[in-house]
Structures are given as C-alpha cells and as structure tokens.
C-alpha cells in the first residue's frame, strides 16, 4: 500500500510569516491539529501543531496575533512522497517519534498528510497481527515521557534555558546558638 492511498489530501498550509492566530484559525476551520508551514514559494518550511500554539500562548504571554508561526514551528520536518510505501512512512513516524507526516510533491510542496490515525483506521479493516505489533511499537516510541527538567514550563519571557536549570535548594538557616541560662540546674 502507498502513502497516497491513505493520506489526507485536503491540506491547508500557513505561511512562515503568518501569525499563530492564522494557524489556529486553519486548524479550527478544517478540524485538524496541525498545519504545514510553507515559504514564499509554497515549499514546505516547517510544521506547526495545536500544541505548539498552546505552549507559545502559555510561555510567551503574548496575543497569538503578535507571534509569527516561524517562531514556534518545527523547522526540521520529516516528510515523505505520495509514492512511498506505507511501511516507509510508518517507520519514519516511529524513528522520529511523530504522529503525523507531511506528504510532499517532487518540488517539496505539501500535498497531503499521513497520520498515525490513518494507519490505525486502515489496520482496523485489515486485521493484520503484524500491523498491530508495528502500530503498538510506534505508539510506544512516540509516548516516551520527557525528562522532568526538559518538560518544565518556560519562564514568563519564554526563556527555555532558564526553565531547564535545576531548581536551587532552599538556603538553610544556621541553628541559633542558645544563651546559657543563668540558673544552672
């Protein structure tokens, strides 16, 4: 089976300079949790998810209209071609721990998205035990918990390095010396 057989074809992309508000509007209007980000030539330049938007709103304390997509998108995008085997795309998802993979044409423009849900829905009809094992392995690799320090929220100004620092232990006060009493017993 090929990626083209299962991918979602009606893909809405946002521009690299669009605001997060525009990206959120695309996701709301088209009932999806992600959008490819394209450059001025329509070529895939990044990927933004609803979680990226939520975390930006939380960590930056700025209206979504004032935050460009470029600031929060994932610039390193793993993609595949419509003619790739489904197994190849699935392996990429597992290796790179992603739920969705953009499908691009030979010029690098997005033409679809393949999600893990698309693969699960296909498997549900096929009932292949081998595919069930593959899907379980992919879910397991994607769902690894991050280290607590890396998952800590950023400071109010969005400084992730400050959030990654180990918390300092509270200072201990030296024990007060007690005065000897005047009445020795």
Quick overview of this protein structure:
The protein has 185 residues and is α/β, with parallel strands linked by helices. The chain has nine helices and six strands. The radius of gyration is 24 Å and the shape is globular.
Describe the structure.
With 185 residues, this protein is α/β, with parallel strands linked by helices. Helix content is 40%, strand content 14%. It has helices at residues 3-6, 20-29, 50-60, 69-72, 86-96, 116-126, 129-142, 148-151, 160-164, and strands at residues 14-15, 34-38, 44-49, 80-81, 100-104, 110-115. The strands form two sheets. It has a three-stranded mixed sheet with strand order 1-2-3. The chain has a three-stranded mixed sheet with strand order 4-5-6. Strand 1, helix 2 and strand 2 (34-38) form a beta-alpha-beta unit. It is globular and about 50 Å long. The N and C termini lie far apart (93 Å). Mean pLDDT is 79; it is low at 147-185.
**Largest sheet descriptor:** 3 strands, mixed
Strand fraction equals 5-15%
Average pLDDT level = 79
Distance between the termini: 93 Å
- The Cα radius of gyration reads 24 Å
Question: What share of residues is helical?
Answer: 40-55%
Query: Class by helix and strand content?
Result: alpha/beta
**Major beta sheet, strand line-up:** 1-2-3
| H and E string | HEHEEHHEHEEHHHH
Keywords:
single chain, 185 residues, alpha/beta, 3-stranded mixed β-sheet, 9 helices, 6 strands, 40% helix, disordered C terminus
């Amino acid at each position: 089976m090929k990626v083209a057989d299962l991918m979602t074809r009606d893909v809405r992309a946002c521009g690299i300079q669009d605001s997060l508000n525009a990206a959120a509007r695309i996701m709301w209007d088209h009932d999806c949790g992600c959008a490819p980000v394209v450059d001025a030539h329509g070529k895939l330049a990044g990927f933004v998810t609803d979680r990226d938007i939520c975390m930006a709103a939380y960590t930056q304390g700025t209206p979504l209209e004032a935050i460009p997509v470029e600031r929060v998108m994932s610039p390193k995008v793993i993609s595949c071609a419509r003619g790739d085997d489904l197994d190849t795309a699935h392996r990429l998802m597992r290796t790179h721990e992603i739920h969705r993979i953009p499908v691009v044409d030979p010029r690098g423009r997005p033409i679809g998205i393949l999600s893990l849900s698309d693969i699960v829905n296909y498997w549900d009809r096929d009932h292949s035990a081998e595919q069930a094992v593959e899907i379980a392995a992919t879910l397991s690799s994607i769902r690894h918990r991050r280290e607590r320090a890396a998952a800590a929220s950023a400071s109010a100004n969005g400084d992730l390095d400050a959030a990654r620092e180990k918390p300092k232990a509270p200072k201990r006060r030296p024990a007060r010396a007690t005065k000897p009493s005047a009445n020795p017993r």
